Amino acid sequence: MKPPQIRLATIDSDKFAEKILALLNSNKPKDFIFADVVMLVQRETGIESIGMRLQDGFDYPYYVTRGFSQDFVEKENYLCARDKHGQVKKDSAGLPQLECMCGNIIRGRTDTSLNQFTKGGSFWTNSTTDFLARASTIDLQATGTRNRCNAAGYESVALIPIKDLRTYGLLQLNDQRKNLYTIDFIELMEWVAASIGILISYMHQHEKGQTIKNDLQKYHPSRVIGPIKNRK
Prior knowledge:
This protein is α+β, with helices and mostly antiparallel strands. It has 9 helices and 5 strands. It has helices at 13-24, 30-45, 70-76, 100-107, 128-134, 137-142, 148-151, 183-204, 210-217, and strands at residues 49-54, 62-66, 123-125, 156-163, 167-175. It has a 5-stranded antiparallel sheet with strand order 2-1-5-4-3, with helices on both faces. The protein is globular, with a radius of gyration of 17 Å.
């Protein structure tokens, strides 16, 4: 099967934002809204595999996926570390211990002095092979990194937190091709994730309506990073 054509460099962030806002402001149930958003991101970008994790109890399983194999989703669905008795482990703060880089992003365990992490709390790499080669065994063990993305052949990986009042989950963008992402694209995806976070906040407050659109418009990407197609 021929891989989808990557279109990241030609995305018009204004038009893309309008499409995202239209979906988030629709009257559909949230299941359909989030599925439509993931489908739109994949169609507009050409990225091979995209998933959305959302909190469910202690854990953050996949809520929507496109492109990932069933085997990958089943093995990576849950992030909570468990002991030999099947009980959820707790971290030093008494919270459920979340494994892998997804767990780091959801818990806010990032280091902006490293190029792989953004000020917005995201992780991204254009080569998981190179990233793992540079990381020490101690670092990987400390974060509970499973390395399944790399084992599945994914090289370009981005993990974007979905947050507003708190962190609700994350967007995961995986592709087997190297060197797909730029910081401009990651910032655009951070806007998408932040917009989803705002919607979830309002859903939790039972106030879905015009006020959502007004709040989302404040984070329109053209006011934050400008149209990607015009960036050098």
